[in-house]
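Table S2 (continued). Query chain:
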Amino acid sequence: MGKLAGLLGPLLLAGLVLDVVPAKADDVFYADDIKAATRRYISQHQDQNGLFSIEDRVVGTTLTLRFVKIHDPVRVIDGNRYFACTDFAVPGEPDKLYDLDFWLRPEDGKLTVYEDRVHKEPRRSALWGWYKHPRYTFVNDEVVPLYE
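Corresponding output:
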C-alpha cells in the first residue's frame, strides 16, 4: 500500500475519490484466485443436475459426485503451481464423501486446472460411520501412493 498511497496521496488530498484497482502482476495468484479457478473448473464440468464427473483411475470407473466445499488452506507449490483439496458427496448420501485434489497452473494470465485425482474414498466403519480413506500422501509436495 505504501507505493499506492504515495501515488494516490495527492489525488486523495485534493478530495477526489478513485475507484482504482491496481493491476495484478503477471502470474501472482492468491487463495481467492485458487478457489475461484477451482470452482470455475468444477462448474464447467458439471452436468445439468449440478453433478461433477471424474475418472477414478484406481478403480477404473467414472464417479458422479456433488460438490460440497474447498478445504482451507489452498497452497502454492514451487511458486508456479497451485493446489486445492475438496470434498464431494455421493448424490443422496451427504455423509459419504470423496476427497478430490486439483492442481492448477497459470495459462494466459489465469489459473487453469491441469490435473485432478481422487485422494480419499469413502469407507464405512462400524465405530465411526463414513470416513475418508486416503490413497496417497504427499512428500515434498509430490504424490506418494500409500498402497500399491
